[in-house]
Design a protein that fits this description.
Shape: globular
Largest sheet: 6 strands, mixed
Structural class: mainly beta
Number of helices: 2
Strand content: 35-45%
Strand order of the largest sheet: 2-32-31-30-29-3
């Protein structure tokens, strides 16, 4: 009976997605507190798995380097999927400690991955489903929907091999210094969308549109957009286009990296460096005369010989991570073992020096499609090998284990610990206040077809698992590349195929 009911809900989930796809984008809606309905799951499944494993965490603060605030983004860490312009994925605030954690969710039939927070602490997120992306405003505690705003539908020119690993057209966006959502769309435009309030409730409206259709070729989708410290917008396309847009003038300048693809976001530092990793090389760009993007240096890495299961492209699956005043880090895609790579991020045109290269995970069973976490002179890397899509974790199956902490200095790299946890595809995060790494795991259940997903806290210093809290069971709770996000109130949020999940300590 259990399997039959689970399959029935799954079929409904996919059918609704297809129906929405055919319906297309609707008009702007002022929702004004539509209560959240939980993501459906089978009660029998819930009764058959442990809801909490481990013990309550005792916070131990961890120190890290200072990350300067980009003046054209909302305050860190509320402005984008990776917390700041340096893409550190490290919070100075806390997350759940395992104290009677309460779980709530909102059923959106879409993965609400990039979670940001406006000046009132409300959630601003893009939820991406089969029907395409939509911008949403939610209450951070109740997950009630306050406003929705449809974005252009999928184009078929995105990243990856299908809709489940296509991150273009809204998968990445950021909140600017005026708390407006700046979103690359599938129509080769950048939309700047602001919140509105009227007698009919809260809503969104387009404040400005930058049209890039004359500068980005037909068949290429926009992946990500970010501002540099002067306010100039930088953008990247799936087929190697890198460009800038004058924030006020709208003037577009581009350069093409022929034969190279972009599948992830990028990083920007205070000194004007823009760090982009394609499926062939890591680049530093700088803006020169009239904002023209120019390659400062190119560092080629080992891209391997295949697209490993768990990757959107053949190459590094990381967004570059900027560290302190000196370094930038990515991973490669080498076989038999992938490596964490740390470079000096010099502005010298002679090129970046490779500081160190550390192999991680089992031979021929290691890759990541997630950004590295940077804490001081340590990097946290997650193994996503085996996540070829939602079916890879169905029926009790899961992916290859491994989360590693790599220490580095100017003398080299060394692995500090390796966790045996299995995190199929989440963007993990660190809490410096708690000394915890938060990830989203799926333990194997070879004797059972229940698919249980857990928010998992790992001790940053030792690599030991502190606790695991059940988020939910079934396809709707598969995060499918969405991150863990820590909110201003200490709750953790995880985007999932069904919508958004919130986990928070009870008083």
């Amino acid at each position: 009976m259990r399997n039959r009911r689970t399959f029935s809900w799954t079929s409904t989930f996919l059918l609704v997605g297809v129906t929405a796809l055919l319906a297309g984008a609707s008009a702007v809606a002022n929702a004004d507190d539509i209560p959240a309905q939980p993501i459906p799951q089978n009660p029998n499944d819930l009764a058959s798995v442990p809801h909490f494993i481990g013990h309550r965490a005792h916070p131990h603060r961890v120190h890290s380097f200072h990350v300067p605030q980009n003046p054209f983004m909302a305050p860190d860490p509320n402005n984008n999927i990776h917390n700041d312009a340096y893409m550190t994925d490290a919070y100075r605030r806390g997350g759940p400690l395992g104290r009677n954690i309460e779980v709530t969710s909102t059923d959106q039939n879409a993965d609400c991955a990039s979670v940001t927070f406006d000046r009132a602490g409300r959630i601003v997120t893009v939820c991406v489903g089969a029907q395409g992306p939509r911008l949403m405003l939610m209450d951070a505690e109740t997950l009630a929907t306050k406003a929705t705003f449809p974005l252009p539908p999928r184009s078929g020119a995105g990243t990856g091999s299908g809709i489940f690993n296509d991150f273009s057209g809204g998968g990445y966006f950021y909140l600017d210094h005026k708390y407006r959502a700046v979103i690359p769309t599938t129509t080769r435009q950048i939309w700047v969308v602001r919140e509105t309030k009227s007698s009919s409730g809260r809503g969104f409206e387009t404040a400005r549109t930058y049209d890039l259709s004359d500068d980005v070729p037909v068949g290429e989708a926009l992946v990500s957009v970010l501002p540099d410290w002067s306010g100039r917008l930088w953008f990247i396309g799936t087929k190697g286009t890198v460009g800038t847009v004058g924030r006020r003038s709208g003037r577009v300048r581009t350069i093409s990296l022929d034969g190279e693809a972009n599948a992830n976001s990028f990083a920007v530092d205070k000194q004007g460096g823009v760090y982009i990793v394609t499926d062939h090389a890591l680049y530093r760009f700088d803006a020169v005369r009239r904002g023209r993007p120019k390659v400062t240096w190119r560092a080629r890495y080992d891209r391997g010989s295949r697209v490993k299961p768990g990757q959107a492209s053949q190459g590094s699956g990381t967004t570059p991570t900027v560290i302190g005043r000196r370094y930038v880090a990515i991973t490669d895609n080498a076989d038999p073992r992938m490596h964490v790579l740390v470079y000096e991020r010099t502005k010298r045109r002679a090129g970046a020096r490779l500081v160190c290269k550390e192999p991680v995970f089992r031979p021929r069973h290691g890759n990541t499609d997630q950004s590295l976490i940077a804490v001081g002179h340590s990097l946290i890397v997650e193994n996503n090998y085996g996540y070829s899509g939602p079916t890879a974790t169905r029926g009790g199956a899961t992916t290859t284990r491994g989360i590693a902490r790599v220490r580095f200095s100017h003398r080299g790299c060394k692995t500090a610990w390796v966790s045996r946890e299995r995190a199929p595809s989440v963007v993990p995060k660190a809490s410096l206040r708690n000394g915890l790494i938060y990830t989203y795991t799926k333990p194997p259940r070879p004797d059972d077809e229940v698919d249980a997903w857990y928010l998992t806290a790992i001790n940053y210093r030792t690599g030991r698992t502190v606790f695991k809290k059940l988020a939910g069971t079934g396809l709707g709770f598969n995060n499918n590349y969405a991150p863990v996000t820590l909110g201003p109130g200490g709750a953790a949020y995880v985007g999932a195929l069904g919508g958004l999940v919130r986990l928070s300590d009870r008083p």
